UniProtKB/TrEMBL annotation:
Keywords: Chaperone, Hydrolase, Nucleotide-binding. Belongs to the SIMIBI class G3E GTPase family. ZNG1 subfamily. It catalyses: GTP + H2O = GDP + phosphate + H(+). The keyword Aminoacyl-tRNA synthetase does not apply. This is CobW C-terminal domain-containing protein. InterPro entries: CobW-likC_sf (IPR036627), CobW-like_C (IPR011629), CobW/HypB/UreG_nucleotide-bd (IPR003495), P-loop_NTPase (IPR027417), Zinc-reg_GTPase_activator (IPR051316).
Length: 323
């Protein structure tokens, strides 16, 4: 997505205890993204391993990349770095903030809820698969680790390839007990493109008309389906007439946990002169009125794991089943 930013900047917090893999994930995000211009606020430039061929400028406080992304150091404080990005907000599609390894990510997200120039896009917390259970036996760090877990919208069990399956299952069971309302994912690869975890309504909807990552579906199909990345699946659902609001909300509530993000522009029969922006992060969702020109049609993008049912399953297509 290129061009001027016409709305508040989506704001995602990336949390996780020391050593959970936040820096590696941010490296992948900055080096692999092609369509979304991220402004990433990090604690330490020295830990990043950005491909030098991508760097177009480096002034000691910021690194500009050829793909439109920018990395900004928080060495002089979070507020200073945030101000530097907001001064250039129209140049970016999303902001991602790395929380320190021992901090509560909620304190950062609370800022997004107060600034009209920012819109919360969820908190993603990484869990170190080989170390998590041991961390919970350490009285010095247990509370900090669990606080981060309980603030997450999406939990990513990271570095699963470095331990055995029984440990991963035990970690997941513990996380489900601590935060049952959260979507939990597993990453068993050293490197992967994490951008679907951060994707937002503001970056995805403009691409819907182009068939977001759709393959194998006809151009006239009302349901586009495909692969966003090899670890994630996506589908686009459309309906040409206004939807019943209660039916839509029941569908949104009942979506399976394998649907990690949803976004859409919705028209309801109960409010024909108003269009709504719907966004799902993990197991929570929100509906907000849109300032755009109302349309009769509705379009939704769902992004999920490999376990997400296809768009031929009624739990997925729901109210989008008939025209």
């Amino acid at each position: 997505m290129k061009g001027a930013q016409s709305s508040a900047l989506p704001f995602t917090v990336l949390g996780g205890f020391l050593g959970s893999g936040k820096t590696t994930l941010l490296n992948c995000l900055l080096n692999m993204t092609k369509e979304t211009r991220y402004a990433v606020l990090v604690n330490d430039f020295g830990q990043l391993n950005i491909d030098e061929r991508l760097i177009t400028a480096h002034d000691g406080e910021t690194i500009a990349l050829a793909n439109g992304c920018m990395c900004c150091s928080m060495a002089d404080g979070f507020v200073s770095a945030l101000t530097a990005v907001m001064d250039r907000a129209t140049q970016f599609d999303q902001m991602v903030v790395e929380a320190s390894g021992v901090s509560n990510p909620r304190r950062i997200m609370d800022i997004a809820k107060l600034d009209p120039g920012l819109t919360p896009n969820g908190t993603i917390v990484l869990v170190d698969a080989p170390q998590f259970l041991n961390q919970l036996t350490d009285s010095m760090i247990k509370d900090a680790v669990l606080t981060q877990v309980k603030e997450a919208d999406i939990l990513l069990i990271n570095k699963a390839h470095l331990t055995d399956q029984s440990t991963v299952e035990a970690v997941r069971a513990t996380l489900d007990k601590q935060h049952s309302d959260c979507t939990t994912l597993i990453n068993d690869r050293a490197k992967f493109d994490p951008s679907p975890l951060f994707d937002s309504v503001h970056t995805a909807i403009p691409r819907v008309g182009k068939g977001l990552a759709s393959v194998g579906s006809k151009a006239t199909s009302d349901h586009d389906h495909g692969h966003t990345h090899d670890q994630f699946h996506s589908c686009v659902l459309r309906h040409s007439k206004p939807l019943d609001r209660s039916t839509f909300e029941s569908w949104a509530t009942d979506l399976p946990p394998s649907v990690i993000r949803g976004k859409g522009l919705i028209s309801f029969a109960e409010s024909p002169h108003q269009q709504w922006v719907w966004q799902k992060v993990g197991r929570t969702y929100a509906l907000e009125s849109s300032s755009g020109v109302p349309e009769q049609s509705s379009t939704v993008v769902l992004i999920g794991t490999e376990e997400m049912p296809t768009d031929t399953d009624p739990i997925i297509y729901g109210p989008f089943s008939t025209q």
